[in-house]
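Example record

One chain of 207 residues, shown exactly as stored in the release files.
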Amino acid sequence: MQIWFVSPNLNPLPLKKQKARVMSPGFNVPAIVDCIQLFKLKFPSGSIKTMLLSKIISGGQTGVDRAALDVALEMGIPAGGYCPKGRKAEDGPIDPRYPLQELNSPHYPARTERNVLESDGTLIINEGPLEGGVALTLKMAKKYKKHFLIIHPSKSLAVSEVIKWLKSNPINVLNVAGPRESNSPGIYDKAFSLLLRLFHDLSGNIP
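Predicted structure tokens for this chain:
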């Protein structure tokens, strides 16, 4: 089954030329979002299922967390996770459309720990040294002996590396974590692109 392709200038290629696999890391987010709308015409909500994963969770923060939820929800992959009391995030209360459960604590570390605990493994998408909540995520994964992988979103073989990791470990519920947008400007776009390509490769819809 072929996947529709959208060029960087947002103009869909003619259907007769549908030969592209998935966007390269250089594609901008508007192009990717437009591409998702085309995907939804071919794959109605809930029809795209990954081969290895049953659910994607995150804490809902801006940046990597939000990118993971956005891609999962748009593609019909079950999503969820835990967030601080009041649905706290740096850009204000997290939108109700994200199916997150509020904890009693308003502090970020509590939700970081809970998401690590409730998942089978954690994918950390990060550029540069691990700091703040991202470093805490790794600490918690090690503390509870959970599977984890740290990946740079612009790495050439990032998708292949993540798939190999998923296939090598019993991970059904995947926690996706990384820096918030204010700490790593542009990380949402990069994580979104990476996860979009990853989930489609896992879905088996790419020839």
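Notes: Strands lie at 55-57, 79-80, 82-83, 101-102, 121-125, 147-151, 173-177.
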